[in-house]
Amino acid sequence: MLRVFVQAFRTPDLRQKLLFMLGIIVLFRLGSNLPTPNVDVEAVQICSDQALEEEGFGLYGLLNLFTGGALLNLAIFALGIIPYITSAIIFQLLTVVIPKLETLKKEGPSGQAQITQYTRYLTIGLALLQATTLVTLAESGQFFPGCPQEIVADNSVGSLALMVLVMTSGTALVMWMGELISDRGVGNGMSLLIFTQIVASVPGMFWNIQLTRGWGIFALVLAVALVVVALIVYVELSQRRIPVQYAKRMVGRRMYGGSSTYIPLKINQAGVIPVIFASSLLYVPMLWAQFNQESAWAAWVAEHFQRGDHPIYLAFYFLLIVGFAFFYVSITFNPKDVSDNMKRYGGFVPGIRAGRPTEEYLTYILNRITSAGAIYLGLVALLPLMAFNIINPGMGMAFSNTFGGTSILIMVGVGLQTVQQIEGQLQQRNYEGFLK
């Protein structure tokens, strides 16, 4: 990996792209630490430290991880890239349900550009809604339950509206930064911004482990993290290759086909999306319980879901991940479309007839792979969480948020994807051809 980056910086145009990407990341981290107007910075810091020290503070743990600490600090980029991720997932699901969106998707770049524009509009709407909720919680004192400090300096309507406007504008700016990285940098801009926020929390959490538990637990946590990363890299690079043979055919005076290729099906076809879905869905009852603390149902939710280490919580988490994995793969990979495209261009799987038999074969293979991938996602999400709760019961939820399945999957996945793109661009520039 280091060799790839050294070679990239030796290539002038790639060096320019990497430096541009690093510059955007620096600005992004700066905005993640600038407080929103009308926020008492000292009070927020006191309440934030108190909340993170409390056992069982897990309501905003994952969301705060995705914002690199900006959420708990009520920074300008407090919402981070979360509204855009939610909007993109919603439109990806709606594409299967709404025929007009499916038609736009099949139109190619022009249709995809229109869907991207709709995604931006929905992102702004979601950011406005989430910023309003965040400011309301901060103004009412429910953002940090149990903290006596007043974190909002002025409770007037104008000041609160300004806070909502600044946070919504911050999300729009983050979305623009991500698109700039995708257009003029290397890799997917949105993924790299999430990667940056998660990585920014890792050194502080490691040092926290050393201060609270000593060098022995620190070494054990480091070893567990390295083993989990190695296993994730191995599985993420694993794939089932289905061979495809194309028959020869004459088009005019030219002959086409006769080649062999394969359909690569990754073991983890769904990526990290099912884990994000499951985590977001499990936060809904906890958020509702925070607004209705007097009811018996809220007490039950707080007892079984708040800390994140209860067997009922873990069982629900695992089942939701497995269910969302099957659901997401079913809407992103259609065996019927793949079979029809192969038949249209004279392709077939050796030993399998074209048409419906090929579709059934692909469905059978996909279900087996998805079963393994879904179980893998569930184990990756749960095992670090349980391990860190055993190692450090008092801070298990905070540690598992940083070194848990979601964060490690994102870090490893985005890292591998970025390095592969850099290698691909290096190969294009250093290709010598057949004459040398």
From TrEMBL:
<feature type="transmembrane region" description="Helical">
    <location>
        <begin position="270"/>
        <end position="291"/>
    </location>
</feature>
<dbReference type="GO" id="GO:0005886">
    <property type="term" value="C:plasma membrane"/>
</dbReference>
<dbReference type="InterPro" id="IPR002208">
    <property type="entry name" value="SecY/SEC61-alpha"/>
</dbReference>
<comment type="similarity">
    <text>Belongs to the SecY/SEC61-alpha family.</text>
</comment>
<dbReference type="InterPro" id="IPR026593">
    <property type="entry name" value="SecY"/>
</dbReference>
<keyword id="KW-0472">Membrane</keyword>
<keyword id="KW-1133">Transmembrane helix</keyword>
<comment type="subunit">
    <text>Component of the Sec protein translocase complex. Heterotrimer consisting of SecY, SecE and SecG subunits. The heterotrimers can form oligomers, although 1 heterotrimer is thought to be able to translocate proteins. Interacts with the ribosome. Interacts with SecDF, and other proteins may be involved. Interacts with SecA.</text>
</comment>
<feature type="transmembrane region" description="Helical">
    <location>
        <begin position="70"/>
        <end position="97"/>
    </location>
</feature>
<comment type="function">
    <text>The central subunit of the protein translocation channel SecYEG. Consists of two halves formed by TMs 1-5 and 6-10. These two domains form a lateral gate at the front which open onto the bilayer between TMs 2 and 7, and are clamped together by SecE at the back. The channel is closed by both a pore ring composed of hydrophobic SecY resides and a short helix (helix 2A) on the extracellular side of the membrane which forms a plug. The plug probably moves laterally to allow the channel to open. The ring and the pore may move independently.</text>
</comment>
<dbReference type="InterPro" id="IPR023201">
    <property type="entry name" value="SecY_dom_sf"/>
</dbReference>
<feature type="transmembrane region" description="Helical">
    <location>
        <begin position="118"/>
        <end position="137"/>
    </location>
</feature>
<keyword id="KW-1003">Cell membrane</keyword>
<feature type="transmembrane region" description="Helical">
    <location>
        <begin position="190"/>
        <end position="209"/>
    </location>
</feature>
<feature type="transmembrane region" description="Helical">
    <location>
        <begin position="374"/>
        <end position="391"/>
    </location>
</feature>
<keyword id="KW-0813">Transport</keyword>
<keyword id="KW-0812">Transmembrane</keyword>
<keyword id="KW-0653">Protein transport</keyword>
<dbReference type="InterPro" id="IPR030659">
    <property type="entry name" value="SecY_CS"/>
</dbReference>
<protein>
    <recommendedName>
        <fullName>Protein translocase subunit SecY</fullName>
    </recommendedName>
</protein>
<dbReference type="Pfam" id="PF00344">
    <property type="entry name" value="SecY"/>
</dbReference>
<feature type="transmembrane region" description="Helical">
    <location>
        <begin position="311"/>
        <end position="333"/>
    </location>
</feature>
<dbReference type="GO" id="GO:0065002">
    <property type="term" value="P:intracellular protein transmembrane transport"/>
</dbReference>
<feature type="transmembrane region" description="Helical">
    <location>
        <begin position="397"/>
        <end position="419"/>
    </location>
</feature>
<dbReference type="GO" id="GO:0006605">
    <property type="term" value="P:protein targeting"/>
</dbReference>
<feature type="transmembrane region" description="Helical">
    <location>
        <begin position="157"/>
        <end position="178"/>
    </location>
</feature>
<feature type="transmembrane region" description="Helical">
    <location>
        <begin position="215"/>
        <end position="235"/>
    </location>
</feature>
<keyword id="KW-0811">Translocation</keyword>
<dbReference type="GO" id="GO:0043952">
    <property type="term" value="P:protein transport by the Sec complex"/>
</dbReference>
